[in-house]
Amino acid sequence: MIDIVASVALTALAVLFPAVLILASPITTSARRRLGFTLLLWFALVTTLAAAGFFAATNGGTPAIGAAVAVPVIAGLIAFRRSAVLKSLAHETPLALLVAVHAGRLLGVFFLLLYAAERLPLTFALSAGWGDIAVALAAPFVAWAIHRRTAGWRGLALTWNTLGFADLVLAVTLGVGSAADSPLRFIYEAASSGTMSTLPWLLIPGFMVPLYLLTHLAIFSRLRRSADLGHVRLSGAI
Predict the structure, then answer these.
(1) How far is CA 158 from the centre of its chain?
(2) Residue pLDDT, tens place only, 42-93
(3) CB atoms within 10 A of CB 224
(4) Residue (of 233, 223, 231, 205) closest to 96 by Cα position
(5) What is the residue-wise DSSP string for the chain?
(6) Where are the domains of the chain?
(7) pTM for this structure?
């Protein structure tokens, strides 16, 4: 039952999360369509490969999952440097919205449910699960502070974004370190993180994590730009 519920929830989040950002951005309709189609192809590729067992321990295994996380992030950063559309998406979409979409990480509760079902190791499940839940619960409050420009909003946003980014990096590290087939395994607990190589769970490292990492990087960029602009205004006033 948990796999069925997760299939619906993760697919819905995979659609809604990027759709909200794309629709709220100032990019043209044609650019939205192209970007949406690219994301659809990415989602279809990850899903097809997972369904074919490409990420199973007997095939690509943990290294393939690691690549599924890293390649989209690297590709996204390269594309960002060359694409005016992606720069507009990152720099002109409301900053509060870039933060608010992380409320979807409440689905981290599934890590805890999988641990309760003895399908994930303790260290990985608790860190990834509670980390995502904490980041998700804080996201609306941080987004509100950004929107209202309350006192200290920039420092609050930077702290939240750093912790949210670190949570994802830690979760990936612990996932790799607790997989039975991982050449970098350092956690030897009763269960393995191998569950994450199958559907629907592969959607998390293969699609959601790269998207959230890229969003965190966009937020870092925005906070730096806003700080630079503030410094320029202050220097001009002096």
Answers:
(1) 17
(2) 999 999 999 999 999 999 999 999 999 999 999 999 999 999 999 999 999 9
(3) 11
(4) 223
(5) -HHHHHHHHHHHHHHHHHHHHHHHS---HHHHHHHHHHHHHHHHHHHHHHHTTTTSTTTTHHHHHHHHHHHHHHHHHHHHHH-HHHHHHHHHS-HHHHHHGGGGGGGGHHHHHHHHTT-S-HHHHHHHHHHHHHHHHHHHHHHHHHHHT-TTHHHHHHHHHHHHHHHHHHHHHHHHHT-TT-TT-----SS-GGGGGSTTTTHIIIIIHHHHHHHHHHHHHHHHHHHHHHHHHHHHH-
(6) 2-231
(7) 0.94
Token digits of residue 197: 């190589």
Task: Please state, in angstroms and rounded to a whole number, the distance separating the CA atoms of residues 88 and 100.
Answer: 18
Q: What is the pLDDT of residues 25-54, one digit of tens each?
A: 999 999 999 999 999 999 999 999 999 999
